[in-house]
């Protein structure tokens, strides 16, 4: 019997796996241009953040390797052989974790340009440290290097799945930039956008971890991994939006109330608007008039909006746990469960 999920530190479990991570990324993004190299490396040095996504990818890689119980139980066409722990497999799964973080960081560097955000991970954003041009190139460059690393996995299915994740990231940004007044009020639109923006990368990375672990696409293990990533990603984004609303820049390491400033209505506001219809015109005009942001904040705080958004995150976190319920017992599985339980309470 391993420790109960509550005693597990999911980040500590894979810390060793991720230790060579920054160094090899830094080597990988070395260019002849010192500014570009520095900009691309920026978030892999001291400010490496929580490494949430690579942690999930590594835990999933280990959890699916713990045994093939569910696939073996199903039998028939869906069954895949129980994977053996294989060093090459493990190396590829670690590379997947790196690729996932590189894509994420590239998207953040670009995101801060698009959002005109000055800070990230408690430091200046790359475009503020250097310039917009350098930030655009540094993001592109990281993506290019991530693509090379992806090709080296020699798995066409994984390449396609991760390429789809990239596509989704861009789709999410487009949805956000082009939302109509009707879209802005629509919780379904908000959730689809959240899937594209956040859940897709986590979900596709989890699915890829299972594929690299030797499971076939569509097998119970692969589907479970994908579902886990989908629900955890949604829980994570909803909480991010709650924190944007309730947190302070100090704690978040990035500006608070950024969403409303960008004209975006997130879960707490959308739920609040069901109770207080007077929020609808403010949402539709993207909080653009003098005092709109403050008024919205006051109105939302007088509703169940924040609590309902929080409960939505709890719901998805629980669905993530349910998705991997039939995985064989392992420390990595406990880590994944703990991560899901942590998602709704994380501070930043
Ligand atoms: C953060 O959201 C942004 C993302 C999760 C995705 C950004 C994607 C792009 C800019 C498309 C280009 C993609 C690549 C791979 C270069 P946010 O602005 O809501 O969150 P924040 O508060 O952390 O800024
Ligand atoms: Mg942003
Ligand atoms: Mg953004």
Automatic annotation (TrEMBL):
<dbReference type="GO" id="GO:1990234">
    <property type="term" value="C:transferase complex"/>
</dbReference>
<keyword id="KW-0812">Transmembrane</keyword>
<dbReference type="GO" id="GO:0046872">
    <property type="term" value="F:metal ion binding"/>
</dbReference>
<dbReference type="GO" id="GO:0004659">
    <property type="term" value="F:prenyltransferase activity"/>
</dbReference>
<keyword id="KW-1133">Transmembrane helix</keyword>
<dbReference type="GO" id="GO:0008299">
    <property type="term" value="P:isoprenoid biosynthetic process"/>
</dbReference>
<protein>
    <submittedName>
        <fullName>Polyprenyl synthetase</fullName>
    </submittedName>
</protein>
<keyword id="KW-0808">Transferase</keyword>
<keyword id="KW-0460">Magnesium</keyword>
<keyword id="KW-0472">Membrane</keyword>
<keyword id="KW-0479">Metal-binding</keyword>
<keyword id="KW-0414">Isoprene biosynthesis</keyword>
<comment type="similarity">
    <text>Belongs to the FPP/GGPP synthase family.</text>
</comment>
<dbReference type="GO" id="GO:0006744">
    <property type="term" value="P:ubiquinone biosynthetic process"/>
</dbReference>
């Amino acid at each position: 019997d391993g420790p109960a999920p509550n005693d597990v530190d999911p980040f500590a479990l894979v810390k060793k796996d991720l230790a060579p991570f920054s160094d090899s990324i830094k080597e990988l993004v070395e260019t002849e241009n010192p500014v570009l190299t520095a900009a691309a490396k920026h978030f892999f040095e001291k400010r490496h953040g929580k490494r949430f996504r690579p942690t999930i990818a590594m835990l999933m890689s280990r959890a699916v390797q713990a045994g093939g119980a569910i696939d073996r139980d199903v039998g028939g066409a869906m069954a895949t052989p129980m994977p053996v722990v294989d060093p090459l497999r493990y190396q590829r799964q670690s590379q997947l974790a790196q690729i996932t973080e590189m894509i994420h960081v590239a998207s953040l560097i670009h995101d801060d340009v698009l959002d005109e955000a000055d800070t990230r991970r408690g430091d200046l954003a790359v475009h503020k440290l250097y310039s917009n041009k350098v930030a655009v190139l540094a993001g592109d460059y990281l993506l290019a290097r991530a693509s090379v690393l992806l090709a080296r996995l020699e798995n066409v299915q994984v390449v396609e799945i991760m390429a789809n994740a990239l596509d989704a990231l861009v789709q999410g940004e487009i949805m956000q930039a082009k939302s109509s007044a009707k879209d802005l009020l629509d919780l379904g639109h908000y959730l689809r956008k959240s899937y594209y923006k956040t859940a897709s990368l986590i979900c596709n990375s989890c699915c890829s971890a299972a594929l690299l672990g030797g499971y076939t696409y569509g097998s119970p293990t692969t589907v479970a991994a994908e579902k886990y990533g989908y629900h955890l990603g949604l829980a994570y984004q909803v909480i991010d939006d709650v924190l944007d609303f309730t947190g302070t820049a100090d704690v978040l390491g990035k500006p608070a109330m950024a969403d409303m400033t960008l004209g975006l209505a997130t879960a707490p506001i959308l739920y609040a608007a069901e109770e207080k219809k007077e929020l609808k015109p403010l949402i539709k005009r993207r909080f653009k008039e003098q005092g709109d942001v403050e008024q919205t904040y006051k109105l939302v705080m007088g509703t169940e909006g924040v609590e309902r958004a929080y409960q939505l995150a709890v719901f998805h976190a629980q669905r993530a746990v349910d998705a991997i319920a039939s995985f064989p017992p392992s420390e990595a599985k406990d880590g994944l469960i703990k991560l899901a339980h942590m998602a709704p309470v994380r501070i930043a």
